[in-house]
Amino acid sequence: MIWDLHCHLSGVEGDTPDLRMANLIRFADRMGIERVVIFMGYPFATDPTPDELREQNDQVLQALSHWHDRAFGFAYVSPKHVDVSLAEIDRCVRDGPLVGIKLWVAQRCSDPAVDPLVARCAELKGAIFQHTWNKANGNLQGSSTAGDMAVMAARHPQTPLICGHTGGDWELGIRAIRASANVSVDLGGSDPTAGMVEMAVRELGAARVIYGSDAGGRSFASQLAKVTSAAISEEEKSMILGGNLKRMLLPILRAKGMRV
To answer: Is 74 within a domain?
Structure first.
């Protein structure tokens, strides 16, 4: 069972969300990926306005409309627009088919402004995905590092959180969130460098490591290779490739009456 935590409509060919989703599923089929999670529409908006948040969530909702047996979605929200984002969580997660939220680079997650969004999603049992990256040439002003993630995690110690991209610089990222027991790491997006998955399993435990690809920005094949080629047990690979994500999503799937 392979479930991909981290997919986008951006970077996939197609003039409509439906065409892009069909192509994404076609590529997933080629690699034996059973289910994908998508979030954010197109084009990418690093500091989205309220209208852009709604529009991009509408694109995701449309993309999912014919693929509920193969895909899940997260709502794109921003702590710059708390009231609008709370309304989007209610519209798309509470009252719609989406099962979590995606926070990107508009504002660092160490800022308490993000707390109402995390709390609302947690009430609904949804997944909470925070993009993190530590760039050698400096981050965007609002872009979070794994260190910011650890600060947010300390404010929500009982809430499961996902550290996107394992912090980008994964050696720093793993160390930054190692003591944050409620934080899992997403493997997607970085180059398939030897040792990444092994270190994550060694330092965090396999239960806190989740496969994601960052498709269409990255290929499914290169990102799967991180796990399938890692020097870890088959049981640990199985957990990372699908078991951990399924376990994380089961509470909200059951609350929505969705069977998997």
So the answer is: yes
CATH of the domain at 104: 3.20.20.140
Find the farthest-apart pair of alpha carbons in the chain and give their distance in angstroms, rounded.
46
pTM over 0.85? The answer is yes
Q: Residue for token digits 């709370």?
A: 86
- Domain range enclosing 110: 3-255
Flag whether 31 is in a domain: yes
Can you list the residues of the chain whose pLDDT is less than 50? none
Predicted pLDDT at 139: 84
Residue 246, classified by CB atoms within 10 Å of its CB into exposed (0-12), middle (13-18) or buried (19+), is middle
Domains identified in the chain, total number: 1
User: Which residues are registered as beta bridge partners of 209?
Assistant: 185
Q: What is the chain written as a DSSP string?
A: --EEEEE-STTS--SSHHHHHHHHHHHHHHTT--EEEE---SS--SS--HHHHHHHHHHHHHHHTT-TTTEEE-EEE-TTSHHHHHHHHIIIIISSS--EEEE-SSS-TTSGGGHHHHHHHHHTT-EEEEE----TT---TTPPPHHHHHHHHHHSTTS-EEEEGGGSSHHHHHHHHTT-TTEEEE-TTS---TTHHHHHHHHH-GGGEE----BTTS-HHHHHHHHHTSSS-HHHHHIIIIIHHHHHHHHHHHHTT---
Contact 227, 240 (CB under 8 A): yes
Residue 179: per-residue pLDDT: 98
Q: Report yes or no: 187 and 154 within 8 Å, Cβ to Cβ.
A: no
Q: Does residue 260 fall inside a structural domain? A: no
